[in-house]
Amino acid sequence: MVAQFGSFDYVRETQVPLDWADLITIDLSLYSTSEGRQQLAKTLISAVREKGFFYVKNFNISQERVDRQFHLGKRFYELPLEEKLKYVPEGLDQGKFNGYVPAGRRTSGKTVNFTYVYVGLHRPGSPGTEVPLYVALR
């Protein structure tokens, strides 16, 4: 049972007629076979390189858990800036991304104009260290 933190109210889809971007769908049910994994890899690479965004389906996480994560994220972003700044990772400029990154930070000579929280998955690495999953997947 997932602890209840409240609910998350999703924004309703606009009724304004707009040109929508087509999103590539990543279907994680394909992961169960070797051929499916190859197709997933190709689709994901295409999505990231050509569109920059993608939609994921069949990820085997309940809607209750998804709603909980959205609610927790909303609660975090509602905190005062001073509180959020406590979660800026030490070593951010050396590639340590786990934590809160405020807007306006300069990286590679460019200003990042959005905020985000990165929570990476880790797997055991060399003795005494952990290798971030995003590095392991390269």
Account of the protein in words:
The protein is of the alpha+beta class. Helices cover 30% and strands 19% of the residues. The chain contains four helices and eight strands. The strands form four sheets. It has a two-stranded parallel sheet. Helix 1 links the parallel strand 1 and strand 2. The longest helix has 18 residues. The C terminus is likely disordered.
Descriptive terms for the model:
19% strand; two-stranded parallel sheet; 138 residues; two-stranded antiparallel ribbon; alpha+beta; 8 strands; globular
Please give the order of strands in the largest beta sheet.
Answer: 1-2
User: Total number of helical segments?
Assistant: 4
Strand fraction equals 15-25%
Q: For the terminal residues, how far apart are their CA atoms?
A: 34 Å
- H and E order: EHEHHEEEEEEH
Low-confidence stretches: 131-138
Q: Sketch the major β-sheet.
A: 2 strands, parallel
Question: What gyration radius follows from the Cα positions, in whole Å?
Answer: 18 Å
How many E-type strands?
A: 8
Mean pLDDT: 77
Structural class computed from helices and strand pairing: alpha+beta
The backbone outline, from C-alpha atoms, is globular
Which percent bin holds the helix content? 25-40%
